[in-house]
Design goal:
Blueprint lengths: L24 E6 L6 E6 L8 H11 L1 H37 L16 E2 L6 E2 L7 E5 H6 L5 H7 L3 E5 L6 E5 L14 E5 L2 E2 L12 E8 L13 E7 L7 E9 L3 E13 L3 E12 L3 E3 L4 E3 L2 E14 L3 E14 L4 E6 L7 H4 L4 H5 L3 H8 L8 H11 L3 E2 L6 E18 L2 E19 L8 E3 L8 E19 L3 E22 L9 E23 L1 H4 L4 E18 L17 E18 L4 E12 L2 E2 L16 E2 L2 E16 L2 E25 L2 E26 L2 E16 L1 E2 L8 E2 L9 E14 L2 E12 L2 E2 L12 E2 L2 E12 L4 E8 L7 E6 L1 H4 L1 E6 L4 E9 L1
Parallel strand pairs: 8-11, 15-20
Antiparallel strand pairs: 1-2, 3-4, 5-10, 6-7, 8-9, 10-11, 12-13, 12-46, 13-14, 14-17, 15-16, 17-18, 18-21, 19-45, 21-22, 22-23, 22-24, 23-25, 24-25, 25-26, 26-27, 27-28, 28-29, 29-32, 30-31, 32-33, 33-34, 34-35, 35-38, 36-37, 38-39, 39-42, 40-41, 42-43, 43-46, 44-45
Length: about 850
């Protein structure tokens, strides 16, 4: 607990630019009669900017111009490839005539492939599915080098992968629905592995031997496991096949990257029992240097093993069993201090500086430095411009950054065909995760706040999650024109969480405070659902017209039990203080839509949906009975309603194969679950409260054209206008409400362009050149920027990636060279905004430019 300060102190700190260019800190002290005043002032970066400088800034920050410049580079690749194609065309033709056989790679065809998705729990052509969904198949994942969740952001605009206080604490954000750091609510976007929900806890990080990744946008409530307000990410692994086949892949790169993966398909009983075994290993040095401990951060040490078994009994029954173990070790990229707030409840700018003498007497600061010889002598305010000047790749933080996670995911999907048009399916899933992390929070070399030290007897973030899910589904077609999916769903999730926060290490002046939160959470879901699509063509005479309607009724039961390790466990129970609490919510979700297949190429649809995110308990806050708005530990369910108007076209325009998808949406979210950071008993706690309402409006558009057999061009653009329409909420029973906003984790604009050039160089061999660019505008990493957490804005950025490959389709090998973030831009992918408490805000770095060489062999 923070002791009372003997003197009144006034501090003034302006917010420096995140790049730190031109930042200058000066500090002076004065001695008025009633105490001391510490003045910290930031010099202006530039008093005036010339007109030419303004034009340069506009050019560098303009989304359109940045995209246009990269388009020029893509055009250059296009021109070079055209010339090269002409040079090799004659030799390829000659070889074809001389051998009499030519096996041209599929990539040299300019037709658009049919893409099959399961967004509505049945296999459908993407171009004829009336929902917003983006898909990456296995070949695309390889070509785009999609190796982690973070890589998805550049491949699927409109999806933000947000880091909080380190690089291993990630969550998805789609259409404004995300998850705040240290919140105990469910993710707004839920991941699934082979139709089994993994609750955001893990399992989806093992990006190897995948058949596809599908990203569904908008509220998901009627068809998929648990309800979600933002979307779903569906990971599907490669199923066993009836042939003996497989592949091996070796990838080497800078930062000592070594990555190996492979799979083998094993037929056991012809057409009855087949197996597949896949695995991967990855090790890489981090690219962030920590001066405090003279080590690197962001080290990766991962491996995984997956076994799949498909059994068929007769012609009507099939069971697909998949078991996967995933290990992730190393450490995390740390958050880096980027701004200070003088109005924090804990005056860290004062306490961790020479001004400590004004509080505890002469010699206090020197005593602190003697006990912490690695701490800079200038103090926190003097440290910030030094950190900004050297950039985020070199840091100086005292918190340990260790990471260890072990994840087991099991799934069994059994299908029984009980009639020509009727199938009974059972989906059984189990997810077990155990992880421990030691993380830095304030991003500085001073012991302001972190989640434990690896050498401490207590410390870190411990998570032990077990999820068991069971779904019985009946799908088919009745009355000739009605296709339906219905079912029962059950899930039991148990989460044992323990977090130890270590704060205000001012030893020997004041010992650090350890605050331990230890609780067992249990969430149980019982649901019944059904959805059907009826073909109205015969009834109305309008060919291609259909209507879709669905509903789901859910019973959500939540309990929290605070364990003996919790700091507040010894406090006796009372009507307002209960170490065991439970609550049950009854919620409905629905979906209604109309779609018109105007012709074989064009689909138009309109749909409206309602879904919710579970309510729950703030176990990090303590066992206080009641809602967070009045000082309690509970928060209400979040409800989302949307309207989406979309079109999908796949056909030819001027004899050019073309795919164009567009979705315009408007969504209203009530009781938005957002975090505010508060002090409880002198210690930091995260409390999730319900902000009354938010509105998100925007569009997603993407397209591809194949003008030539060897050329593919594509682009995507997303726009999101997200805001709190009713932004005032009470927190912790404080009579002064908190005004939330601007809306976090949601760039207003994001987009990408890509080009693929593929040409045959000899017989079965082809060269492929791929280039893509992703661009997004700036965003906030806290929802309380405009009131209590200034300095939590991160600017937009551009990431460009390239790949050049040589493939032999007959012999089955591919060699490629890859570069990511080719422009070597410094950018940030999230942060932790606690300046209202600790006076500090910190950001998490994105990956620098990296090179790799990949060799893949298929047999």
């Amino acid at each position: 607990m923070l002791t009372a300060l003997p003197n009144q102190l006034t501090l003034f700190v302006s917010q420096p630019d995140i790049t730190g260019s031109g930042s200058l800190f000066t500090a002076t002290t004065a001695s008025p009669p009633n105490g001391r005043v510490l003045l910290v002032k930031v010099g202006e970066q530039h008093a005036r900017k010339s007109y030419s400088r303004q034009l340069k800034v506009f050019w560098e920050k303009s989304l359109i111009n940045r995209t246009s410049r990269f388009s020029i580079w893509i055009l250059a690749v296009f021109v070079v490839a055209t010339a090269t194609q002409k040079v090799y065309a004659d030799s390829a033709t000659t070889a074809a005539y001389s051998t009499g056989t030519v096996s041209a790679p599929d990539a040299t065809s300019n037709s658009l492939d049919e893409i099959i998705v399961t967004a509505r729990r049945r296999s459908e052509d993407l171009s004829k599915t009336p929902v917003a969904v983006s898909v990456l198949g296995g070949d695309a994942l390889d070509k785009l080098q999609i190796l982690t969740q973070s890589d998805l952001q550049t491949a699927i605009p409109g999806v933000t992968i947000r880091a909080t206080d380190n690089s291993n604490q990630l969550n998805y954000s789609i259409r404004g629905q995300s998850l705040d750091a240290f919140s105990t609510s469910q993710p707004g976007v839920l991941p699934y592995v082979n139709e089994v929900p993994v609750g955001g806890a893990g399992g989806s990080t093992a990006f190897y031997d995948l058949d596809s990744i599908q990203v569904l946008k908008g509220p998901q409530g009627t068809l998929f496991g648990r309800n979600a307000t933002g979307g779903a990410v569906l990971f599907t692994t490669v199923k066993p096949k009836d042939d003996f086949e497989g592949y091996f892949d070796a990838r080497l790169g800078d930062y000592n990257l070594k990555q190996f993966e492979g799979a083998v398909n094993i037929p056991i009983v012809s057409d009855r029992l087949v197996a597949r075994v896949a695995g991967f290993y990855e090790k890489q040095d981090g690219f962030q240097t920590n001066l405090y401990y003279s080590n690197t951060l962001g080290d990766i040490d991962r491996y995984g093993l997956r076994g799949s078994l498909t059994a068929r009994v007769g012609d009507n029954f099939q069971s697909d069993l998949v078991g996967e173990y995933f290990h992730s070790g190393g450490n995390s990229l740390t958050s880096v201090l980027n701004s200070l707030n003088p109005n924090g409840l804990i005056p860290a700018i004062l306490l961790f500086s020479p001004a400590l003498d004004t509080v505890y007497g002469p010699g206090a600061w020197n005593a602190y430095l003697a006990a912490h010889p690695r701490a800079p002598a200038g103090g926190l305010a003097a440290f910030l411009p030094v950190q900004l000047a050297r950039g985020p790749f070199t840091v100086d933080v005292d918190g340990s950054n260790a990471h260890l996670a072990n994840n087991l995911v099991l799934s069994d999907i059994s299908t029984l065909k009980i009639a020509d048009e009727t199938t009974l399916k059972n989906v059984l899933g189990f997810n077990s995760l155990r992880s421990i992390d030691f993380t830095e929070v304030d991003g500085s070399p001073y012991g302001i706040v972190d989640n434990g030290q690896a050498g401490d007897a207590q410390g870190g973030q411990l998570n032990n999650t077990h999820e068991l899910s069971e779904e019985l589904q009946l799908a088919g077609k009745i009355l000739r024109d009605l296709s339906y999916v219905s079912g029962l769903y059950f899930e039991d999730e148990r989460i044992d969480e323990e977090t130890v926060t270590r704060s205000l290490d001012l030893a020997p002046i004041m010992d650090p405070s350890f605050d331990t939160h230890d609780a067992l959470l249990r969430n149980r879901t019982f649901a019944v659902y059904g959805e059907g699509t009826y073909d109205l063509g015969e009834l109305t005479g309008i060919h291609g017209l259909g209507v879709t309607a669905g509903a789901r009724y859910s019973v959500e039961r939540h309990t929290v039990q605070f364990l003996p390790g919790d700091s507040g466990f010894d406090v006796p129970d009372s009507p307002t203080y209960q170490k065991y609490q439970e609550n049950t919510d009854h919620e409905t979700s629905w979906h209604f839509g109309l779609q018109e297949q105007i012709n074989s190429d064009l689909l138009v649809y309109v749909t409206t949906r309602k879904s919710f995110r579970d309510g729950g308990y703030n176990w990090l806050y303590g066992p206080q009975v009641g809602l967070g708005s009045v000082g309690g530990d509970r928060y209400l369910p979040e409800t989302a309603r949307d309207v989406e108007l979309g079109t999908k076209f796949q056909g030819s325009i001027a004899n050019v194969p073309t795919r164009l998808d567009f979705a315009l949406y408007s969504m209203t979210v009530d009781n938005v679950q957002r975090v505010d950071y508060v002090l409880v008993g002198g210690n930091i706690a995260a409390v999730t409260v319900n902000v009354p309402q938010a509105k998100i409006q925007g569009f997603d558009a993407d397209g591809q054209i194949n003008p030539l057999s060897w050329l593919k061009l594509g682009a995507a653009l997303s726009y999101a206008d997200a805001r709190f329409s009713e932004n005032v909420a009470f927190v912790q029973g404080n009579p002064t409400p908190t005004a939330f906003g601007p809306y976090p984790d949601t760039p207003r604009w994001s987009g990408s362009i890509f080009t693929d050039v593929t040409f045959r160089v000899y017989a079965n061999r082809a060269v492929s050149i791929h280039g893509d660019l992703y661009d997004q505008t700036g965003t906030y990493f806290t929802s309380t920027f405009n009131t209590i957490n200034p300095g939590t804005f991160i600017p937009g950025y551009v990431v460009a990636n390239f790949r050049v490959g040589l493939e032999d389709s007959k012999q089955g090998w591919t060699v490629s060279a890859n570069v990511k973030n080719a422009l070597n831009r410094v950018y940030y992918v999230g942060g932790i905004g606690t300046s209202n408490l600790t006076s500090t805000n910190a950001v998490v770095l994105g990956a620098p430019r990296t090179f790799s060489v990949d060799i893949r062999y298929k047999f």
